[in-house]
Amino acid sequence: MLRPEKMDRVVLVGPREELDGVTEILYDLKLVHLVDYRGGDDAFRIGKPSEKAATISEDLVKIRSISSIIEAAKVKKPSEAEVSGDVHQNIKTLEINISEEDSGRKRAQSLIAELDTRVAELAPFAELGFDLDVYSGYGSLEVFLGHMARDIEGLEDVSPEHELFRSGEAFALFVPKERAEATRDLLSRQGFSELDPPEGSGDPRARLADLREQKEKWQKRLSDIDERLSKLRERYAGFVLAAEKQLDAEIEKAEAPLRFATSDHSFVIDGWVPADKYEALKSKIEGFDPMFISIVEGEEEGIPTLLKNAKPVRPFESFIHLFSTPSYKELDPTLILALIFPIFFGFMIGDAGYGALWLVLGGLMVWKLPKGGFKDLMFAITIGGFFAFIFGLFLFGEAFGMPFIAEEGKMGWNTSMGINIPIHSVLNKLENPVELILLSVVAAFIHLGIGFLFGFFNEWSHNRKHAIAKLAWLFILTGLFMIIFARAALWPGFGRTVNGTLFGWVPGGGMTLDTLGFAASNPMPFAALAVIIGGIIALVFTESALAPVEVVGLFANMMSYSRLAGVSMAKAATAEAFNTIVFTAAAPGGAFIALGFLLAFIFHAIIFLLGAVSAGIQAIRLNYVEFFLKFFKGNGTMFRPFGIGKATEV
Amino acid sequence: MVADAGIVALSAAMTMLGTGFATAWAEKVVGGAAVGAMAEKPELFARGLTMMVLPETIVIFGLLIAFFLVGKI
After folding, report:
1. Which residue among A317, A409, A415, A419 has the highest number of C-beta atoms inside a 10 angstrom radius?
2. How far apart, in whole angstroms, are the C-alpha atoms of residue A68 and residue A95?
3. pLDDT of A22-66, one tens digit each?
4. Interchain contact B50–A (C-beta under 8 A)
């Protein structure tokens, strides 16, 4: 539960002939986290990949390129093609077919691109309408060909003798050779972009039509090729994906000897196995007659972590790994995170309506989504939705930002909608902010307290002094908590409200000593001061003389939990504002009621999504920053047994 | 004290304004850097998020102080 799976270090020794068989068995069992052999002694060296490895990796490269050409991953439900027969031969045949189509496609694409450029070059001349040999071959004339958006100004002054032909922006200008320089200056000042003179002769319109015809022909060919490729995709995607998977497995097996130590006649495999799976592994391995397997005692370094949690808690493990994998020797905080995260999330949403929606929608998504990080997140939010529903129903007594029971003249389910839900709210988010903040401080005390206890147990085994420091911190936390509560009960204005509602049990005096504190009228509970001072003295001896400065930091951590109240109130205020708009819009009746429903839908969808985003981020942040930093070291190695493939990205 | 109510309310508003702005500014800096780091190493997501939301504490303190101020009215 709070400890990761116990691991044993195992060593397998056997003759070289059994290597392939043993690798196969280990791959299928998926039990052993291999410790790579690094070389470094005379008798053993790092093993060589099996002879098949080269062929397999070649096939793998081919199948990946085929897969990307026919876009196999795009096929939603590939036909379950069995990988049967000679995979190598099949891949070869498929590759010949597909690479021919692929090179055909590439040729067609590049030709079409080339034709496009030529069409673009020729189009202006087709508009001008002269034969192409008109533009060159003069002794005394200079020809300017180009584009210009505006009319050419001042041409008369530069070259009184000229011929200008325009068609749209394109133009051809003929001037005498001796005026060429001056004309060029004039044109370039007015933003002239020059065109290359066309090659060849004849009517440009005929040539253009010819080019377009060619392009059409190639486009037809390209679409034929695409069609053939999509047929190939439909037919072979299943095979390609399955073969890729199979080859991935085979290459892992074929290259496994690179992680083993081998000598001329034997091999040694070193790794970690979950302690309760050792017997299963042993019985399989002993099926090979000359194999030897044993547990090595006393190994302490590099033990991989396999978190061990009950099934409903397991989705929360991704949150832990996202932060850092716990080391083998520390407590696993998944259980606490799984309890706290949904409660915090639920408290911040705190609304029966949104809570029920998240419960239903989240549940549907968990049901439908494929395995992975996003599903785990949705699971956490679904549980959070459950708590939001419970809090909304029994603590805040509201749904979609409206209280179930409101006084006459105020917005509420009974007054505005005529629906009677006989549950009175214990707290109103906007009218009892101090109580909300105090509840947050209670959350802080419990959460941080667990954090320090975890820290104590983590440190106990290797440094007693540091462990005691964690207890000292717990004392200081308790003292601060008591002071905040006593102060809240005494705070002018607030004290009376607090004592009147949820926190009626907080003593307004009695546990305080009038002579302590800032003034007689402003006392602090002496027990709290004693606990804090005791804690600080203990800190000086166990951590350092400067450690007491961090007490302020701890206070800041506690106050940081009032984001629970903050997000909750912000959500409530937004919902109330939106509801006011909705009811105002729907007030005239008739068609306006439909408008009201539309607005209500849009507004509540916004709050529903934004609320979940902010509540989710804040709830996870309180765990990552305030909670984890009290004890969590992390930097562990995740248990990845041989046979589960390459590390997937989180 | 009633005559000062406006001043107290204004102080509360200014507290929210200042701390809100400070948080936004700090998160802008941290967030930009975090996204940059994540482009290089996607596994830094959790660290990045943690760093990014740290400055929120500023506005939370602002919120608390604003509440205590409003309580004085």
Report:
1. A317
2. 12
3. 888 888 888 999 888 887 777 788 888 888 888 888 888 888 888
4. yes
Question: Which sign does the torsion angle of CA B22, B23, B26, B29 carry?
Answer: negative
Nearest to B53 among A559, A566, A617 (CB): A617
Instruction: Quote the CA–CA distance of A327 and A325 in Å, as a whole number.
Output: 6
Interface pTM, i.e. ipTM: 0.81
Segment A361-383, tens digit of pLDDT = 999 999 998 888 889 999 999 99
Confidence of residue A470 (pLDDT cuts 50, 70, 90): very high
Interchain contact B64–A (C-beta under 8 A): yes
- Give the number of A-B residue pairs with CB atoms closer than 8 Å: 53
**Interchain CB distance below 8 Å, A621 and B72:** no
CA distance linking residue A9 with residue A22, whole number of Å: 17
Domains and CATH numbers, chain A: 7-56+255-296 (3.30.70), 67-114+223-248 (no CATH), 115-210 (3.30.70)
Q: Which residue of A has its CA nearest to B51?
A: A625
Identify the pLDDT of residue A80. Answer: 58
What domains, with CATH codes, occur in chain B?
2-72 (1.20.20)
pTM above 0.95, yes or no: no
Question: For residues A557, A559, A563 and A569, what is the CA-based torsion angle, rounded to 10 degrees?
Answer: 170
Among A316, A324, A624, which would you mutate to test the B interface (most chain B Cβ atoms within 10 Å of its Cβ)?
A624
